[in-house]
Amino acid sequence: MTTQLQISNQSPETLKNIQAQVQQRYQQLKSEGLSLDLTRGKPASDQLDLSNQLDGILEGDYSSAGPDVRNYGDVWGIPEARRLGAEIMGTKSEEILTGGNASLTLMFFAVQYHMNKGWNGPESAWSKNPNAKMIFPVPGYDRHFTICETLGLDMVTVPMTKDGPDMDAVEELVRTDPDVIGLWGVPKYSNPTGCVYSEEVVERIAALGTIANPNFKVLMDNAYAVHDLVYPAPPLANMMDAARRHGTESSLWLFASTSKVTFSGGGISWVASSTENLAHYAKYIVAAVIGFDRVNQLRHARMFPDMDAVTAHMKKHKDLIKPKFDVVLETLGNELSQDFGTWNEPEGGYFVSFDAKPGLASIIIALAADAGVKLTPAGSAFPYKQDPRDCNIRLAPTAPPLAEITKAIEVFAVCVQLATLNSLV
To answer: What is the distance between the alpha carbons of residues 69 and 302, in angstroms, rounded to a whole number?
Structure first.
């Protein structure tokens, strides 16, 4: 066990001595010729193996409550898959449309629909307002930023707290800035901070439609809704029920997928909203999609007949990845005092979010790269890749083997120590 390095209240001479020792340790690690990667939150191969039964699960039986899944079909998806999505997101089946392997596609279509068509007719299209902007709690999810950048939407940020977005800041923007047309978030195990939105935050998000302009929408990505690392898992208040209480169902869009539940490249996805919203949405996307892969939807419905089956499956995932999170958190705790930074201890999701001292994230990432450890680029969790404090680093420990994680996080901790000491000496 490494003794936690303390640097507060040390004399300049002592700091120089500590710096020299850390520099020597860094050079030793660098000489090992490592090639490790902590950049993306992907499942490891042994996690993917948990879903190998999808191959052949139908055994030639393509019967579904809907039309023949092997033929062309409507874009809504098969009834069994819609029921599964409704259970995962806490909605009614009629409020669900089932898509293909990427919820990102469904998100892009939703934003594009509001940009091009508008909920209240052509004049309400977001593209009619050259100053239209979306609110993002930060640090946040880079894929959401990319959608907005691609479609020409400006982005404004609010701080992420331990309970979710800073709702005082969100409500102030919604009330005072008519150009604000939406809020985007990850309500459970937020990427990358791992926070679960509190019941109060969910209620206040649901009420935004009562104070916002008529074209305002809430987009919530339930990417990690069932990715628990502890049981019993922290609950997320039902967003659709909250919206019903405020009469704002038409302002709410929910998304989810099995991308990290079964096969990342061969899963299914869902979008949920009011039935009126979905009717417009389905009519829009049918120009591009005759129907998603309903055979694959049936495979997933057979594998997961109910939420008990989903939970049992996700506990197997937890058994595989929790030791990786444990070694990350243990190493950070052993190596780094609060003098070097802060980090979350997630109860689910795919990331550990580390905040170094301001101005050091880019330096730490460069030091790690020179030592053979690839990290997510600095600023990735902020719009336009601009972290104003240059402090946040997203660690993704799921994909590499445990031995590689152990070495990579040691290198990371030493890089944090060295960058911090260099800034002081």
So the answer is: 13
Nearest to 259, CA basis, from 326, 352, 212, 191: 191
β pairing state of 373-374 and 154-161? unpaired
What's the pLDDT tens digit per position in 80-139? 999 999 999 999 999 999 999 999 999 999 999 999 998 888 889 999 999 999 999 999
Convert the pLDDT of each residue in 223-281 to its tens digit. Answer: 999 999 999 999 999 999 999 999 999 999 999 999 999 999 999 999 999 999 999 99
Domains observed in the chain: 12-47+311-424 (3.90.1150.10), 64-304 (3.40.640.10)
Contact 253, 276 (CB under 8 A): no
Tell the residue number behind the tokens 């099995």, with chain if given: 258
pLDDT in tens, 182-206: 999 999 999 999 999 999 999 999 9
To which residue do tokens 């074209």 refer? 215
Rounded to 10°, the helix 402-424/361-370 angle is 130
